[in-house]
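Justification of computing resources. Each target in the renewal requires a structure prediction run like the one illustrated here; the chain below, 347 residues long, is used simply to show the kind of job we budget for.
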Amino acid sequence: MLKQKVAVIGCGGMSNVWIEYLLKRDDVEIVALADIYEEAAQKMADKHNLSCMIFTDIEQAIKQSGAEIVIDVTIPASHYQVCKTALELGCHVLGEKPMAANMAEARSIVEIAEKSGKSFTVMQNRRYNENIRALRDMIAADTIGRVGYIGADFFLGPHFGGFREQMESPLIVDMAIHTFDEARLISGADPVSVYCQEFNTPGSWYEGNAAAICIFEMSDGSVFCYRGSWAAEGAPTSWEASWRITGEHGTAIWDGDNAPYAEVVAPGDQSGKFFKDTVRKDAAVEWQGQHGHDGCLDEMFAALREGRRAETDCHDNLMSIAMVFGALESAKTGQKIDLKAFIANGE
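Resulting structure tokens:
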């Protein structure tokens, strides 16, 4: 079997997840590791018993190793330059979220990918879960009718220490991208506008705003409301958030951990009733894919093999990252942001 040559750029802790996955595949070969610190790349090679080439420069890594695919596991501030270099040198890129550090860079990366004829796909691992797929399928099957409201509550109190506790907007920048992207998957709709208020709460151990409420108008006419905090002690939600979706015939519920279900208006004449009778409909949990990173990587490589855009290709992910940067712009200006204009012109 002809193996595709892969260069892994960035050898911090997260690169272990990607390398361990790659080593399970028989259709790829890791030919290079690169990091700004040569010792970090060599340490990673030794850890995984790799005899590949070691570099501190991405251009040299690609040219000298003959890499066809670049794995970008660098810090967000480096994503644009890594992707730009790799795409322009003829490589496909598979990278960690976020796709870029700002809207202008995200827009530019999509344009570069189009010009290069190569693909850039973004890791959105929380899409790959049998329960969220079951919820999406339940909504798509019109179980609750036309959707009017999508609500996601995310309340946790993690004490990370380190850089997150010094960030200006830790919740929205570092975590909300997952929930925003999940909302798009579940609803099948894209964001049209956003109003966001960021704030910090009493007792918060974060220097920046660790809480936010965001209201998105969606392309199907529904409203998506995100309420979240990373400084919420007690009664935690799931990392996948707690979801309530209301439609014209009923409501779908997902607690983020267990299988979703819906309660819909029962058949028969219920005219005159103050509260209508409902019946429960359990979601069909049928998705057989791998969870998390491995599931997303399976899709990335399947798309390359089949010559199509992956589910989280940069063209699609542009809409998810726009929700993040648009929310930050709204919080800063105190205004509702038109996301179509923001995607086209936002910085």
